[in-house]
Amino acid sequence: MRNHLAGESSRYLQQHAHNPVDWYPWGEAAFEKAKREDKPIFLSIGYSACHWCHVMAHESFEDEATAAVLNAHFVSIKVDREERPDLDRIYMSAVQALTGGGGWPMSVFLTPESAPFYGGTYFPKTARYGMPAFTQVLRAIAEAWNSRRDELMAGGERLVQALREQVGGAAEEGALTAATLEQAFQTLRSSFDTVHGGWGSAPKFPQPMILEFLLRYHHNTGDPEALHMVTHTLEAMARGGIYDQLGGGFHRYAVDATWLTPHFERMLYDSALLVPIYLHAWQITNEPLFRAIVEETLDYVLCEMTSPEGGFYATQDADTEGEEGKFYVWTPKQVRSVLSGRSDQAMTLYGITEQGNFEGKNILTFSGTYAERALLAETRQELFEARQERVQPGIDTKVLTSWNGLMLHALAEAAHVLDNETYREAAVRNAEFLLRELRTPEGRLWHVWKDGTAKVEGFLDDYAQLVWGLLALYKTTFEPRYYTIAEELMQVALDHFQADTGFYDTADGDQALIVRPKELQDNAVPSGNATAVTVLLDLARLSGNPLYENLARASLSSVQPLLGRYPLGFGQWLVALSSALIPATEIAVIGDPTFNDFQALVEVARQGYAPYRSIAAGRGDVPLILKGREQLEGQPTAYVCRENACRPPVTEPQELQTLIG
Fold it and tell me: CA 238 to CA 245: how far, in whole Å?
């Protein structure tokens, strides 16, 4: 039997298209049915790479008896959180308010008017883990709907009102101050795991935005402890099971405190956000391991997660053949069969033992030196090729504009820092794909693309993160078109997403949501608001337009009281705050990009880790930082300005080096 998901393009929804549950996609048909039949709605939100989503699907949604209860008493709606992050944010806030926690799969019960009145996450088929059986929950909700409906409706109305107040609440405002950066650093310092790196116990997340903030703090202050927190964490992750020692790239997070056992799903955004951190750490320390992680991770994305058209796929499953992590783990026997008599060193360095470290098998870690790692390159390739013969984890081939913007940003920056033409070409190809397939003729964005079709009106994250990627690509290619489109997309965000302070997550004109969400806190990815502030500051430097900086500073001012106290939830905001407080060095290189002398000046302008350096190059008046500046005696010429004061133009690389220090 096929339900109403059969025509959906989402891989996650397609995974449920043959369930006996009479699933509907989010839309008017489901709500009309709920009103007509006087039934509450069961809303289930998840994503294709989610292990516990698969567990609940197998236990309950594929079960005829459970489906019969759902079909009799509820109208059931399935939502892919990656396609509809707006719905995910609204109803996750509701579940967190109701239960104090959240996660996926998310299970929410709604009135036919879409107001939430009860919720949770995973419910087991039979009562265990201190949780009731799912059918017990369903029958209790159905009974309450029939006998205590007024109470449920009133509770739903109160919850919706609370969510609206939460979105509309204004924080105290004040002048931006470096004291906030210091407070955040001290908070992070006090909670840092000095043994294993990172923050927290289990599960442990990579925290890329926090690591970038600490690199900037070290850059600003010279504090060695800030740098140590970053390098210790990056090395621990690179050696741990959270990193794929054979194929490159990162799993979502570690379920333990030591980075050993990953949650095996792989998300595009983790690679996109961690690549720049390893790249910047390499620029600062010249540690070869960090560069290797950058290259291996990008090579993984280009090999495994790139569509023929140039888009980047969203996720890779945790499970293969019904087992979490089966694709990635090894036994000593398997290693010996691949390496014959040459297995001893590999087994020692990769931590492979007879007893194993994961359900009797081995997640690969690495304990040797970088030189030993390099010597294992051939062995690593042999094991990788043998692993490729296994059943591969499934890939969700949808392309999300927002996550692609993050990956574009990482790839473009790596292209010029590492002078890698493959990365540069892939970045250009990705940008052209996104602008061709996910941008409308009117200049608006779609959120998701799959199998040749784009859909779902773009969210703030899509605009802000694609602008971030396009600005990085401009700084790699100095192609003015990428800057121009970035500025146009930011104007769309200003026209259609702007709130009294900051931005809403959804565009104006959408009346179908119970709340117009406005996410401030960073999660696995930077919030749309934090990213928007980041790119507004960048645009301000390149364009000289004070509107951009004024908007960014107003947004920062409204959240500043939270940043020092709760840095782990506001990492990208801290990065943006440091950009607002530290004077930028603006460099304009004027001339013909094909000339060697021009490239020599650009190379000096780009060198090293320089987070507050803003560079434009070429001829013309796009961006405006180039306008009105001439070449001296026909030679490529560099103009340097800082703190609203400009130095005399120079034509020699050594002179430019002296000016920028």
Answer: 8
Q: Give φ, ψ of 525 to 5 degrees.
A: -120, 160
Beta pairing partners, 446 = 457
**What predicted TM-score, i.e. pTM, was given to this entire model?**
0.91
Residues 6+ apart with CB under 8 A from 472: 408, 409, 410, 412, 413
Evaluate whether the domain defined by 11-168 bears CATH number 3.40.30.10: yes
| Helices and strands: H and E segment counts in the chain | 25, 19
Average pLDDT over residues 400-408: 98
Would you identify the CATH topology of the domain 585-660? Answer: Glutaredoxin (3.40.30)
H or E element, residue 458: none
Tell me the per-residue pLDDT of 566-577, one tens digit each, with 9 for 90 and over: 999 999 999 999
User: What CATH number matches the domain at 178-206+296-315+396-581, 2.40.70.10, 1.10.3720.10, 2.60.40.640, 1.50.10.20?
Assistant: 1.50.10.20
Question: What is the per-residue pLDDT across 41-51, written as a single tens digit (0 to 9) for each?
Answer: 999 999 988 88
Q: What is the C-alpha to C-alpha distance for residues 232 and 248, in angstroms, rounded to an integer?
A: 19
Cis check for the bond before 262: say yes or no (omega within 30 of 0). Answer: no
Closest to 407 measured CA to CA, from 531, 510, 325, 311? 311
pLDDT digits (tens, 9 = 90+) for 155-199: 888 878 877 776 665 455 679 999 999 999 999 999 999 999 999
What DSSP designation does 57 have? I
d(CA 25, CA 9): 11
Residues 6+ apart with CB under 8 A from 588: 615, 616, 617, 625, 626, 629, 638, 639
pLDDT at 170: 47
Identify the pLDDT of residue 431. Answer: 98
Separation CA 636–CA 599 (nearest Å):
9
pLDDT digits 0-9 by tens, 84-104: 999 999 998 888 878 777 888
Q: In which residue are the tokens 């600062």 written?
A: 284
Distance between start and end Cα atoms, the chain: 69
- CA–CA distance, 605 with 586 (Å, rounded to integer): 10
